[in-house]
Amino acid sequence: PASGAAPPASAMPPAIPMSGAAPLEHPVSGPVDGPARVDAPLGVGPATPEPEVDDPKLLRLVRVNLDVGTIWRSRVTDVLVNASVEAGRKRGLSGSFHAGVIVAPDRDLVAVTEFPIGAGMVARGWARRRPLSGSVGLSAGVLVHRASTEGGVLHRVDPDLRLPLRFTWTPGKVGLSLGIVQGYSVRSRTYERRGVPVWSRIPYRIGLMIGLHFDAGAGKAKPRRSDGTRRTR
């Protein structure tokens, strides 16, 4: 080329990269909103979705209760052994079925054994961040009365209502239970010998029970985000 003339563009040497790094086409002049990720170290990219948590109101639970205790009918104390099954929501309403045995200790003249059987509903709630729960229920059924006397064996069946109140501690699949159970069997029962009452019970009873319960999950909750909204699939 002639002196003082610029060489053509095609004759210009290519730019030499510095340390193998190519310059940014659009330099970043300031911080960018959004979390930094491996594929987007400067925070550019889609936002991370909110973590999902289970909705406790939709969790399903099957619980088996085994209890033993005492019941009082006026001034008389009897022994109660009870088994029940609850199936439904872990927090909320569940269906229940129970069957038990009431044994009267005064069996010298009249040996009485009773069998409360029934079904109903239970409402359960849980403490926050602790394995503690409480429930109240209402059930209806029958009280089967069996008495062995000098004249033979008698069987009677009365309608029976039951109101259980239960507190539980459940660190795992097995837990401890403490319950207060009220019942009402409509009528009194009295047996006499030579005109003297030898066995008598009133319709109302109240008992204190302690026992074990076994939990099993029967379903999974729909996912819910931490902000309280449920995700649609």
Summarize this structure as a short list of keywords or feature phrases.
233 residues, single chain, mainly beta, elongated, 12 strands, Porin
Notes on the protein architecture:
The chain is mainly beta. The protein has a domain at 60-217: Porin, CATH 2.40.160. Helices cover 0% and strands 58% of the residues. It contains no helices and 12 strands. It has strands at residues 52-54, 60-73, 76-89, 92-103, 111-126, 132-149, 152-169, 174-184, 189-193, 196-201, 204-217, 223-225. The protein has an 8-stranded antiparallel β-barrel with strand order 2-3-4-5-6-7-8-11. It has a two-stranded antiparallel ribbon with strand order 1-12. The model has no long low-confidence stretch (mean pLDDT 82).
TL;DR of this structure?
This protein is mainly beta and 233 residues long. It contains no helices and twelve strands. The chain has a domain at 60-217: Beta Barrel (Porin).
Helix content: under 10%
Order of helices and strands: EEEEEEEEEEEE
Structural class: mainly beta
Under CATH at level 1, the class of one domain stands as Mainly Beta
> Roughly what is the average pLDDT, rounded to an integer?
82
What is the CA-CA span between the terminal residues?
Answer: 71 Å
The major sheet is characterized as: 8 strands, antiparallel, barrel
Indicate the overall shape: elongated
Q: What order do the strands of the largest sheet run in, or round the barrel if closed?
A: 2-3-4-5-6-7-8-11
According to CATH, what is the topology of one domain? Porin
